[in-house]
Amino acid sequence: MRKMLRFAASTLVLSLSVPLGAQEPEDDDRPANEIVVTGEGLRQAPSIGAYSVTEIEREQVIASASGRIEDVLQNVAGFQQFRRSDSRSSNPSAQGVTLRALGGNATSRALVLLDGVPIADPFFGYIPLSSIAPETLSRVRVTRGGGSGPFGAGALAGTIELESADAATLGPVSASVLANDRGETEASAALASDLGAGFGILSGRWDRGQGFFTTPEDQRVPATARAGFDSWQLGVRAVAPLTPDIELQARGSVFEDARTLRFEGADSTSEGQDASLRVVGRGEWEFDALGYVQARNFSNVVISSTRFVRVLDQRNTPSTGLGGKIEVRPPINEAHTVRIGIDYRQADGELQEEAYSAFTGALRERRRAGGTNSNLGIFVEDDWQIGPLLLTGGLRADRTSIADGFYRAVDADGALVSETIGENRSDWALSWRAGALFYATRELDIRAAAYTGLRLPTLNELYRPFVVFPVVTQANAELENERLEGFEVGVTWQPVSAVVLDLTAFDNRVENAIANVTLAPNLRQRRNLPAIDAQGIEAALAVKLGEVGFDASLAYTDATIDGEGTSAALDDNRPPQTPKFAASATLAWEPSDGWRFATTLRHVGAQFEDDQETDRLPPATTVDLFAQVPLGRRLHLLARGENLFDEEIVTRNSGGAIDLGVPRTVWLGLRLGY
Questions:
Q1: Is the pTM of this model over 0.90?
Q2: Which candidate in 50, 283, 555, 600 could, as Cys together with 624 as Cys, close a disulfide (CB 3.0–4.6 Å)?
């Protein structure tokens, strides 16, 4: 908590000091020549229309039943976490996100950006979902398909862009506090102010609770524990004009998340400190220059499921991420939007853990593992408008590097048990994307796109073995980069202004797909599969009839492993954790300003825990509820319900050892502003 208070004091000073040089408005009437800052990046390039895109506006972002960002994203066709559990009851290192059911492991195959900055953990590649407060966002944009452009090497399955709200949207003071029927609490607050011609925002959130039993009642033992959680995050954001066309954006955040899973003492902690600076120019030559640094850490204690004592203490996994980009849009002519740029990312970290005997408690091994991965990318993209036809194409060259990798284990006396020294390697890789959008009629748009993509293996996949007792998963220092090839066609039909239907058919193939491959009943290893093939259909429907709105999404994906050689036995198997069918539908009623009643129905199809298709996760259908009732000018009463019919959601099945997702949970609280 002292760290939290120190950060709050220093970041508040930053938010007040950054805009000192900004120009004060002459009066409250906002003269025409007043400088206006947005806190956003450059306008979206026209190419966005040629790809499968879903946008979630703020009203929907802040109206989820759980109040968590992963719940918001579940309404997007094709979005998938590695496991069905949310960021209160899963191991943080399992919070990988992907699109289009491309399977794999807990590493993210989708690029997640917060105000243009990649936020994946540098060592593991998971997304720190609990560090994202939905109430501070203005919108979410999800683009499916392999990415080009900035940081495109991470957008194998697509890109999820989170954009922060400005001071005007948040208001001077915003806050909320809720409690649920288990006595758990959620509290958040934001202070926002215009500072000269810019603005500053200080925000924070604290979630804590005893959690629920993830273990079914018939499998509980005296050592069984609830999935307790205690997480907080604090952020500051300041935006100021440097000239009438150029603005400076500064962001800092710190977070910590502690959880207990399944057994007493099975505690995990993730923490981070992030900072970024961004300069955006909106003059004749548009540009976006960004730099960021991330300091992260992770710890985890593994408890034996037979003797219920500590067998592994992953006590420290410090990692650092740094990077940046420069993007320029030269003024060629009105028909062309050209983007030229360069970006860089580097991740380094080291695992520090100790293994103990389940029988004596004595130290058996000390283990260290780590390395440095980096990526330098150069990209160019052009959007060309020819009457009702938009053509877009992009090319990207990446210099990938994997260096200084190692794994070393010594016994209690310091004698070497095993050691792996990874080979330093680097290479150039080309990727591209191209698309077309045709405005066929006033009601109908037709689009088509093809693309390739790239993803480096993470330090975690290369060098860190792990245990989800009793299954041991080995690392693999020889993993190769994943490559994606795919294409899609789609239509957007708006027969009347109140109805929008979007339909996309796609075919994606991930070559050298990294997966946890079963070698023996309790042994797996990360390996490159020949490929994962995924073909499917995504659909979205939005209807707005006066006070009533209806939003629905559906994804059907036929994903299979293309196995050969040592993976021949997996041929035609479905990738682990990959459902064929997922759907979501939300019906909302907003009788007047400040009022909102909404119910969400979700269904996810059956999945398999492993690549052998032996441990099945049954389908699950849930119903959620959200209600907001005004009590005053800016004060609202909130009621939320998660999984109202208490559906049993199986999130893990390891040889019959089951973990469950959130049971019926009812929240009640107050919201000021937002």
A1: yes
A2: 600
Question: What domains lie within the chain, and their CATH numbers?
Answer: 2-21+37-672 (2.40.170.20)
What is the spatial distance between Cα 247 and Cα 249, in angstroms, rounded to a whole number?
Answer: 7
Strand partners, 325: 290, 343
Token duo for residue 224: 């069984």
Say whether pLDDT at 504 is over 80. Answer: yes
**637 beta partners:** 629, 670
Residues 6+ apart with CB under 8 A from 106: 82, 83, 93, 94, 95, 96, 124, 125, 126
The secondary structure of 431-469 as a DSSP string is: EEEEEEEEE-SSSEEEEEEEEEEEEPPPHHHHH--EEET
47-67 exposure pattern, b = at least 16 Cβ within 10 A, e = fewer: bbbbbbbbebebebbbbbbbb
Tokens of 526: 């990360």
| Lookup: tokens for 2 | 């002292």
Q: Count Cβ atoms below 10 Å from residue 312 Cβ, excluding itself.
A: 22
How many whole angstroms separate alpha carbon 351 and alpha carbon 316?
Answer: 6
Looking at residue 289, its amino acid is A
Do residues 234 and 7 touch, judged by C-beta distance below 8 A?
A: yes
State whether residue 588 is helix, strand or coil: strand
- Within 8 A by CB and 6+ apart from 170, the residues are 136, 190, 192, 201, 673, 674
- Token pair, residue 271, equals 């923490």
Question: Which whole-number Å values give the CA distances from 324 to 12, 327, 376, in the listed order?
Answer: 25, 10, 10
Angle at CA of residue 645, ends 127 and 81, nearest 5°: 15
Q: What is the pLDDT of residues 536-568, one digit of tens each?
A: 999 999 999 999 999 999 999 999 999 887 678
Cβ proximity of 116 and 151 under 8 Å: no
Q: Are 42 and 282 in contact (CB under 8 A)?
A: yes
